[in-house]
Amino acid sequence: MAKAAASGFLRHGAAQSSNPYTALRKSPSILSPATGRSRTRSVSVVRCVLQAAPELKGGDVAGVFDFERYLSSRADAVNDALDRAVPVGTAPDRLGESMRYSVLAGGKRVRPVLAVAACELVGGDADAATPVACAAEMIHTSSLIHDDMPCMDDDDLRRGRASNHVAFGEPTALLAGDALLALAFHHAAAGSAARGLGSAAGAGGVAAGQAGDKYSEGAAHVSLATLEYIHVHKTARLMEASAVSGAIVGGGTDAEVERVRRYARCVGLLFQVVDDVLDVTGTSEQLGKTAGKDVEADKATYPKLLGGVDQARAYAAELLAMAEAELDGFDAERAEPLRYLARFIAYRQH
């Protein structure tokens, strides 16, 4: 039954969705549709393989953007806002503790920083993006709580400590994820920005991607197009919505918002490609979650479908170049946070 459902989903997914990155990539497909074998891909914009991290901190070098300081300051502001947004006493004690346990557990805060940086990119004030930034992190945290549960990926470790359902029990974890999702829209209920987050969180986004990921486990064949469908929805859509929401509340023009959208799509897929590589190359201690889970669950991953870790890294390098290209034409100084954020995602080690 499970395999029949999986194959049905794959056929449906391939028929109903086109790959949104096809228009962004000018190079040929990684896999030959006739044979499924890897073939050399021409990548004119990138000739490197992501291995060693570049220097992201300017230090005392004049004119060099200090990304670490920027990331830390924006993440601290979001953490403070989240702390205020999920106060003790607004829910039954154990439920409130469970919500705070996960949403305040740290993490890279990529999605809220995307929202803030996109807002600033188009000339807006960072404070204007705080509500949608918090909402994006709540939605993301909700998806992580549910993703770790026994009915899904059954993972006991998240962000270096026990997963929510291990710490609080499955019923409380389920409700905490639901409550955080609802709370997200309480904070983002400011017009069109909230609509984009809603689409990214539901059946057109994270839920669809998670379903596809689950249904494809153990399938005899998963195509690259299907894998990208899964990760466009599971990962990229929420990053895209975070950045677009920030650009909207910052007063960006339609053209600016669209360029931010394309940038964030590339970054979202880049995040997942790197995640797949780290699942193979990292340890549980480095990652803060169980390493090797994708192989154990027989999931389709980029290293698996592209023919190895080096090929997946090369694809990541291409996505990084495309993301950065979308920032050309914006004010260079305001674009620096998003440029460095893309590099941070590309070269991260956890």
UniProtKB/TrEMBL annotation:
An example Gene Ontology molecular-function term: metal ion binding
Domain of life: Eukaryota
Cofactor: Mg(2+)
Gene3D superfamilies for this protein: Farnesyl Diphosphate Synthase
SUPFAM superfamilies, per database record: Terpenoid synthases
Entry annotated with the keyword Metal-binding: yes
GO biological process entries: isoprenoid biosynthetic process
CDD domains cross-referenced by the UniProt entry: Trans_IPPS_HT
Gene Ontology CC entries for this record: cytoplasm
UniProt entry keywords in alphabetical sequence: Isoprene biosynthesis, Magnesium, Metal-binding, Transferase
InterPro entries with a match to the protein in the record: Isoprenoid_synthase_dom_sf (IPR008949), Polyprenyl_synt (IPR000092), Polyprenyl_synt_CS (IPR033749), Prenyl_diphosphate_synthase (IPR053378)
Pathway named in the protein's UniProt entry: Isoprenoid biosynthesis
Family named by the database record: Belongs to the FPP/GGPP synthase family.
Protein name: Geranylgeranyl pyrophosphate synthase
Organism: Leersia perrieri
